[in-house]
UniProtKB/TrEMBL annotation:
GO cellular component: cytosol
CDD domains: NAD_bind_Shikimate_DH, SK
Reaction(s) the record says it catalyses: shikimate + ATP = 3-phosphoshikimate + ADP + H(+)
This protein's name: shikimate kinase
Class of the enzyme per the UniProt entry, highest EC level: transferase
Keywords: Amino-acid biosynthesis, Aromatic amino acid biosynthesis, ATP-binding, Kinase, Nucleotide-binding, Transferase
EC numbers: 2.7.1.71
Pfam families: SDH_C, SKI
PROSITE patterns: SHIKIMATE_KINASE
GO molecular function terms listed in the Swiss-Prot or TrEMBL record: ATP binding; shikimate kinase activity
Amino acid sequence: MPGRVVLVLGTGGTHNTVTAVCQDAGAKQVLTASRTGKDGALTYEKAQQHPEINIIINTTPAGMYPNNGSCLLDLHAFPKLEAVLDCVYNPFRTELLLRAEELGVPAYCGFEMLVAQAVYAAEHFTGQKLPEAVIADTHRKLKRDLSNVAIIGMPGCGKSTIGRALAKTLGKTYVDLDEVIEKNTGMPIPDIFAREGEASFRKYESQAVAEISKQTRQVIACGGGVIKTPGNARALRQNGPVLWVQRPVERLATGGRPLSTGLDALRKMEAERMPLYRAASDAAVDNTGRLENTVETAVQAFETTFDA
């Protein structure tokens, strides 16, 4: 932090703590932004006129559950941005952090701060010093327990089967996104396509994604085209990793899938969606072997996301 220009969002108590820490760490300048711009603070709009900013720290509740998805800044306005910290701890990845990651900027969640606060409170209450590793270990265990796993991939690649087995292995709730859509609309998926068309289905799908992805401790099996709507990938990633199940087109199941009309159609679909799956996922899982092997690979991919 020495020599860096820091922008702190918000003017509450956490702002005061963060500002003091930044100054003690040798920040060149600490700017403050707020909704009103009073008491020497910039407005969020005016803050975006400071391209020299290197670090952004959010101390407001913007983007916190249940108001997931809100964001105060356009990060493209900060070409020298080096890091973003969001003190919000639910969800794990706020919209601010997701936008930072998309720009290749290191992004950090406030959940570890929450754990550290609890550890220091316990030390103060008991009078006993806890091992230094307790914060990192507790943070990892809690995040593993609370995290979702979203599963994406081509129609018929085995997402539902893998999802059920993975949920059982990880001790999480299994959620089939198509079943949520059918419950919300009162119609089977093929009927939605036949009566209202794909555009209406995608709207229902996005509503279901927004609803389900706010919750935690779930394995979410998604429809094959969920990644066609840009906001869905962000929503799915806010509370855990996204795993991309891969299976050869020739081995995809096609029954009851409105858009899986033949091998040529599937090949064309795969070519169109491949870049979207790649961009949306944290890891790929091969599904050409035995189910137990695929699930083991998925568990390993899930665990690896906490060591990154």
